[in-house]
């Protein structure tokens, strides 16, 4: 099985995972106020999701920032998120604080062994090394359940809606993924999938900040995807950008439940990368073939 086929299989496996997902016990407000989530890559996105869905009572940090500013950890409970459990910055942080809680798929990892407690991410995958999808969903749902009651009900409907809308999208030029508040972390996740799977020149930004910054690097024909339900502000932005020759895509989650909206954009992020790779007849995800870049990445991560 090719790594692109493995990615497609794992994306499909997410519905079964969601149907069988067992949430964590939601933390009290007082505990959330003393909680920090941290991780790298997709796991940092999951940490930011916990932050925003806790109404910013909990905080999300990059582990290197905490290693350099340990006063930020004082009197806090730290959750360290890592699928492999072997990212060096997380492990160093766990060794430093000694009482962290690991969120990982690998209970035998160095991270788990250096934390006082481990929350194990249980999910099935293809068994083939590929870009993360179901692994991210497991960390996303786990972190979300720690700070908020899970209110997502229509897993299959959301999935099918995301799949249908994503198939119609053609990515041209540079790609800008825009989000705000709850959806901004998923814009980051979406950019990460485009990097990993296709090697595209992609960028993520806050909707408001784009008009002040990223817009000035855009060229006619570039693609702007808005990760937010339609409202007066983003509709105005979309209309203005279209007049200047940008390819604007505004997707419709078809739900007002904010957790379901975010799940929709997670699926869209994965489908966008998958379908773009298939249109280019890719057999392997980009980072698997880019061996020198992957070596550089692994040298810093592990």
Q: Can you tag this structure with a few keywords?
A:
302 residues; alpha/beta; Rossmann fold; five-stranded parallel beta sheet; four-stranded parallel beta sheet; 14 helices; 49% helix; 13% strand
Descriptive overview:
There is one protein chain. By secondary structure, the chain is of the alpha/beta class. It folds into two domains: 3-147, Glucose-6-phosphate isomerase like protein, domain 1 (Rossmann fold, 3-Layer(aba) Sandwich); 155-288, Glucose-6-phosphate isomerase like protein, domain 1 (Rossmann fold). It has 14 helices and nine strands. It has helices spanning 3-20, 29-32, 42-53, 63-68, 88-97, 110-113, 134-147, 155-167, 184-198, 207-210, 232-243, 258-279, 286-289, 291-301, and strands at 35-39, 59-61, 77-81, 101-104, 117-120, 175-179, 202-206, 223-227, 247-250. The strands form two sheets. Strands 2-1-3-4-5 form a five-stranded parallel sheet. Helix 9 (184-198) runs parallel beside helix 12. The longest helix is centred in the C-terminal third of the chain and has 22 residues, at 258-279. The chain is globular. The two termini are 27 Å apart. The model has no long low-confidence stretch (mean pLDDT 96).
